[in-house]
Amino acid sequence: MPIWSVVIAVAVLLLSIVLLLRFTRAVSEPTGTSPTVSIPQEEASETLKLMTAVGEAMIDSSYDVHSVQSALTDIARVNGLNQAESIALPTAVIVSGQVRGELRTGAAVSGFRQLRLNQIEEVDDLVGQARLGKIGPRQALHQLVAIRDLPAPFPRWLQLVGQVFTAVAIAVLLGASWLGIGVSGLLGALAGAITLAGSRLVPQRYQVLTTVSTAFVVALAVFLLSRTGLDFGILPCLIAPLALLLPGALLTTSVIELSTGQMLAGSARLAAGGMQLVLLALGIVAASALVGIPEILLEPADTPLGPFGPWLAVAVFGLGVVMNRGARPRSLGWILIVLYVAYGAQIVGSLFLGGVLSAFIGAVAMTPVAAVVARQRSGPPAMVSFTPAFWLLVPGALGLIGVTSILDGDSNGTQTLLTTASTMVSIALGVLVGWAITGLVRRTLRRRRSGPDASDSDPMGPEPTDPAPSSTSDGEVRRPT
Description:
481 residues, three-stranded antiparallel sheet, mainly alpha
């Protein structure tokens, strides 16, 4: 590893620590008290509708099921709905509660419409207000409908440019030559055009056809170019245009859920992520069979950009993700902070611990930073800021290589799949450790400010501190002050 890369990584991490400490001092705990009002039992039905809609929106935002259930419990409590229960799955949300002495249940199908990053930010803001009782159920329901109808913050041609940026950046990080960077950019534009056209023309249930078609077209172009004798590096040009289709975040979230006891949700996401890899690999293998290449060569070329090239590529990658996935423009700086922390920690970790455990170090480092960023006035929620970091760590790229190698008859692909599994587990454990560190820091700061009896909060977002509502003798539920 070039010494300059390590020096830059250490400098980036030190600078991030300084910024993190400064932001931590500037963080103010969210406050919100519920007004002292009487809530008729009839409003419990509206609360159940809100819980169902919020759960559906959070699943569509790729939140893990534990976070969804925690948010629904808070919303029920702050609105005076006693004995409320919720079940969150990757494709469904079920809620129940006592209304007029009867048990009522609501359900919604979820997980089939992935929200853009700007919509996820709006959902997170709304859920935070609903958990603190700052917004009523009826108004929150109207706002959720408006959030789903939000237009993309960037036009389609800029989304396409963002796809080109991400492809070029990943190609640099994978060690592409100058020619390979150019080819990756062109193929990124082609993949982006197919994806955007498919999202408009292909029904949601047939989106898998878009995934296979994109992988087939990109791989066909790469393999045809490889027969010209040009040395552009097959690996970067094959993976970089498909980077945003890789299920790195989905696979890693599944491991987190399995690690925290959410077996149904974790296994479902794991199966979905594995199928996504298989579909991409089938497109690649079909293209190789059509062109007639007997073996898929995956050797990367030496990077010509020097030690500063990857660090510039990280910024380009963050800009591309914001443009392509529709994040708020003001979130770009915060997303770049998390990306640089994740990449810098991974560089330092790989120097001492190797490639697989370097992902663990990157996840440990980026999670507290994402949590602090989420507490800033203009900062995006943690889900938005560290989802691009999942793509940067690229556990899915290793899995795609392994599945492609196995389907092409290469037994060495099994070893790559094992490496992918180890990488996913490392990232998942890193995120869990990062959450624990964040919670410990917050408890320590809260005790210093409020005394030893201060309450705890979720590391990834604020939780209300209102006590549980109490029932009066007339059957009404009163919110405490």
